[in-house]
Amino acid sequence: MNTPLPPPSRRTFLKTAAVTVPSLTSWMRAGAAPAVVGGKSLNSRIGIGFIGTGGRAGAHMRMLESLRDQEKLPIEFAAVCDVNWARVEKAQARLKAAKAYLDYRQLLADPAVDVVCIATPDHHHGQQAIDALQAGKHVYCEKPVTHWRQFALTRQLADVAARSPCAFQCGTQAMSDGAWHQMRQLVQEGLIGRPLFGETGFFRIGDWGERGMKVDDPNLKPGPGLYWMAFQGDAPKREFSVDRLFRWRLFEDYAGGPVTDLYPHCLTQVIYILGVGFPEKVVALGGIHRYDYELRDVPDTFNLIAEYPEKVTISVLGTQANDYNATPLRGAGQRCPVIRGWEGSLSIDTNNKDILFTPLREKGAKPPQRIPITHPENNLELWKNLLTCAREGRKDTWSPAELAFRAQTVLHMAMQAHRRGVTAKFDSKRREIV
After folding, report:
1. Is 96's pLDDT higher than 50?
2. pLDDT tens, residue by residue, 114-134
3. Backbone phi, psi, residue 348, to 5°
């Protein structure tokens, strides 16, 4: 559940005081008892299953190989799955995985799999994550947790995750960055007074994330080695094309452009820092402003503003047509947020090592105060956080389903506002977009 921020209060800010934040994960905590899920102890080994074996899955494979080989974590690659059998065979050979599947439901039925890594196209994430949790598997799910048209599935995933004994981690890697945990604590302690505004965005140049996606085999056709119907899932049914299969981020049927591909990386931590729930209203504008070619139908430029019942506003601005960010970048390349309150503002210093607190000018022009950041974003630590929670029977991951639900709701509302030309509104009692 969302924890509301305390009312504004005066506090003494100690320049030399250390801010307590979640520390980098220790794999084997002293005295921690191994969790038992589905009658199985996770003390000796953790079996990893991959649903999806493309580019993002390859990055996760490298991270988990590093944790196994360099940090000696008891990881085994139990199974791999993809609708493209050529990719399945390649991943199985690389990982020396015991099992290979075309149907992810078969992987979920495999008792050797304890944790699943979901790295499929966006429109599969939600249902696969729900099925995995219900099968008694811990889940690392790539963002976004659902496609922009699947709001009901987003809500269902949050509910299933809340009831499940298994841990869930959304792949918003920025949540491993100590800066955002420190900023959240400073806001809760009243340093900036009553929170007012969160400003963030994502600016980069190039369409390499869409048109630049690799086409493994331009001559590939549906058949025994390619499960095209399974790839489409609940998306509108289309004739097969290698572009739709391999360059799926070009198409609104399967993706949402920067709204759902990039903005979870910069919005999630702002919601976390400010401690807000669900917005009352969201407005949005966007379109294809630079990469206007035949195949692409997702926007390359998108701006949104969300207003919250806590009297807080969040803005997310961005484009893939210009890479000037105006504020420092951290982690995956998202611009650092600015958090404004009645008494001052929090940002990241240009040295990228300190949080900068800037008091209001009317407070006597006090100089900005710097708070050293404890540790940077680290994708390996996000994985270790999930694996530690799985082993210890805990669910307090750094990027849980409930937080993903709050962030994804903003993005669902923004896409509806943009596509329908309206202000999207949220009914908090029914948990519905209206």
Report:
1. yes
2. 999 999 999 999 999 999 999
3. -105, 130
The tens digit of pLDDT for each residue in 286-323 reads: 999 999 998 999 999 999 999 999 999 999 999 999 99
Half-sphere exposure of residue 299: CA atoms within 13 angstroms, side-chain side: 22
Single pTM value for the model: 0.92
Can you give the C-alpha Rg of the chain in angstroms? 22
Q: Do the beta carbons of residue 405 and residue 158 sit within 8 Å?
A: yes
Residues 6+ apart with CB under 8 A from 263: 202, 302, 304, 316, 318, 411
Q: Please, what is the average pLDDT of the chain?
A: 91
Taking alpha carbons only, the member of 102, 43, 57, 47 closest to residue 78 is: 47
d(CA 17, CA 19): 6
Measure CA of the first residue to CA of the last residue in the chain; give whole Å.
22
Q: In whole angstroms, give the CA distance from residue 127 to residue 409.
A: 17
| Span(s) in the chain for CATH 3.30.360.10 | 176-212+250-376+405-433
- Buried/exposed 84-101: b ≥16 CB within 10 Å, e otherwise: bbebbebbbeebebbbbb
* Residue position matching structure tokens 């600015």: 338
d(C-alpha 173, C-alpha 199), whole Å: 19
Class of domain 36-174+383-400: alpha beta
Torsion, Cα 266 235 161 265, to 10 degrees, reads -10
Residue-wise DSSP of 167-214: -EEE--GGGG-HHHHHHHHHHHTTTTSSEEEEEEEEE-B-STTTTTS-
| 176-212+250-376+405-433 has CATH 3.30.300.30 classification | no
How many C-beta atoms lie closer than 10 Å to residue 23's C-beta?
11
> Residue 56: is it exposed, middle or buried by C-beta count within 10 angstroms (0-12/13-18/19+)?
middle
What tokens were used for 382? 């996000």
Return the closest-CA partner of residue 177 out of 2, 4, 396, 399: 399
- A 10 A CB-CB count for 257 gives 30
Amino acid identity, residue 360?
Answer: L
From-to residues of CATH 3.40.50.720 in the chain: 36-174+383-400
Between CA 266 and CA 332 the distance in angstroms is 9
- Among 323, 313, 352, CA closest to 336: 352
pLDDT digits (tens, 9 = 90+) for 78-89: 999 999 999 999
- The pair of structure tokens assigned to 255 is 């993706």
User: DSSP code of 174?
Assistant: G
CA distance 334 to 81: 31
